[in-house]
Amino acid sequence: MFQLASGETAQGGLIGLILPFVLMFVIFYFLLIRPQQKKQKTRNAMLSALKKGDKVVTIGGLHGTIVEITDDIVVLKVNDVTKLTFDRSSISHSVSQASEA
């Protein structure tokens, strides 16, 4: 089977060694890499769709309403008096109006 005079057996051994690594990469791609890319894409879309007046929750769990927003800074109104400044990337998710009712 491992005769070097026969090119086919040496080639078959090489394919037998590489094939498991290719299969592992394909499995990792569909189980880990691709879902993570989709999740990141939806998060970036949510962050870019934020606007003044949206109710959001930060990564730390703070609930507030967006008062001011720039490319990388968000100012949240927490209560009638308190306004806090956060990075735009620290927003975890937007709270929809339907879930509040």
Automatic annotation (TrEMBL):
Record bears the keyword Transport: yes
A Gene Ontology biological process term: protein transport
Superkingdom field: Bacteria
Family: Belongs to the YajC family.
Protein's name in the database: Preprotein translocase, YajC subunit
InterPro entries: Preprotein_translocase_YajC
Gene Ontology cellular component terms for the protein in this record: plasma membrane
Species this protein is from: Paenibacillus algicola
Key words, A-Z: Cell membrane, Membrane, Protein transport, Translocation, Transmembrane, Transmembrane helix, Transport
Cellular localization per UniProt: Cell membrane
Keyword Cell membrane: yes
Transmembrane segments: 12-33
Alphabetical list of SMART domains matching this protein: YajC
Entry membrane topology: Single-pass membrane protein
